[in-house]
Amino acid sequence: MTPVADPLRFAVVGADHRHVYHMVGELLAAGAICAGCDPQTSDPRVLDGLRERFPDLAMVARERLLDDPSIAIICIAAVPKDRAGLAIAAMRAGKDVMVDKPGITTIADLEAVQQVVRETGRMFSICFSERFVVPATIVAGKLIADGAIGRVIQTVGLGPHRLNRAIRPGWFFDVANFGGILADIASHQIDQFLYFTGATGAEIVASSAGNLGHPDLPRFEDYGDILLRGGGASGFIRCDWFTADGLPIWGDGRLTILGTEGTIELRKYVDIAGRPGTDHLFLVDGKGTRHIDASREPLTYFRAFLADVRDRSETAMTQAHVFTVTRLALEAQATARRLR
What we know:
The chain is an alpha/beta fold and 340 residues long. Helix content is 34%, strand content 25%. A hairpin with a 2-residue loop joins strand 8 and strand 9.
């Protein structure tokens, strides 16, 4: 009889963004144990929300968490510019790392993280929540793998967000802290382009970014777009902070996937004036049109990540994919035409 492995233990270092909630919640649901959370934060409201959702979560100093040999994984949702440095410290302490996106905000930090991964053999994984926490993307991946729309030749990824200005901390409005809208939000859509097309790399054909609606926030970017090509496919990305208050969700995130024999459209978070709920998938093929409710599809990334940590495998996402997405997002940001 095969012995049952002890649950892996993880800890939170850097609770500055609300994405930490699903990182902790989904790792717990996947069977891991949370050993504690470093209480240092730039936004006490995030820490309060973490305590409210997970009342048994212990507050433990960062140094103790990094020094604890029983902790295998460090989760990081710090101010974006600090994530690479925290990840490097965690990997040098013998931990694997799961980082909120953007995991890295500069090319110099990317090269430093890559070097530490090579030196330590630790895993650096970015939780691309717009794929990993969206059941519809899992169903889409299965359909494409089964040949439902033929070969994927183009994707259109839309990442609109509500600004929620009143609840944002000061760092949120300075590009030096979050890396820019393309380095930040568009990394989601670049990840999805590579995943659904099967491309292992891409070229940034054109990109633009700027502040079009918030002149009183001169260090902020509220709009960006990218045209990219790779693996015999092309992709268009648009991300912004212009979701109106009338929408009952933070953003009408959509992805359209064009294949040689059909199309798939994902309305991830809302079907405007249509069906209730989330995770709507629309399939068009040679037989007709179909709506699929994908909301009950189990998430796979978090269990796969834990298995990878235990087995030293790459089933959740390859390390090469993580770094390719990051480099493309940073290149798009660095070369973007500035909009005013």
